[in-house]
Design a protein that fits this description.
Strand content: under 5%
Number of domains: 1
Order of helices and strands: HHHHHEEHH
Helix content: 55-70%
Distance between the termini: 65 Å
Structural class: mainly alpha
Mean pLDDT: 86
Radius of gyration: 18 Å
CATH topology: Cytochrome Bc1 Complex, Chain D, domain 2
């Protein structure tokens, strides 16, 4: 009886996974990969909760421009910034360093950040990230 229940559960899991669309699966892959990149490259400064580091490092929960402007976000991740960043609560003057991330990782971390901390912006694919990076000034 126990094995029957386990078998039925496994069958249900496989059935539910098969019901996901390709775009849902793509989002899940980019989001999960972005979380890994974020944890290894961004979390040290911005924190596991995206709230930043007091008055030193800006929170990702309050950067309204970057919540919806994926071009600006991709450019900021790739090239960093020496300009101050403004949030609703504070101005941050410290520089954000450039990264050596490949475009696929920029797409993943953009997907993660723009769909975390109260954001829901969908998938940023590698192809989209390539186009965004061409628009950097």
């Amino acid at each position: 009886m126990k094995w029957k229940a386990i078998g039925l559960f496994a069958l249900a899991v496989v059935g539910l996974a098969a019901c996901q669309s390709e775009s849902d699966l793509e989002f899940a892959r980019y989001y999960a990969g972005g979380k890994v990149v974020y944890q290894s490259k961004c979390q040290n400064c911005h924190g596991s909760d995206g709230k930043g580091l007091g008055a030193l490092i800006p929170p990702l929960t309050d950067l309204s421009k970057y919540k919806t402007d994926k071009v600006a976000m991709a450019c900021l991740i790739k090239y960093g910034s020496s300009k101050s960043l403004n949030t609703a609560a504070n101005t941050f003057g410290d520089k954000m360093p450039a990264t050596d991330l490949p475009t696929v990782d920029i797409a993943k971390v953009t997907t993660y950040v723009t769909n975390s901390y109260g954001n829901k912006q969908g998938t940023t694919t590698t192809q989209q990230a390539e186009e965004y990076l061409k628009k950097c000034r």
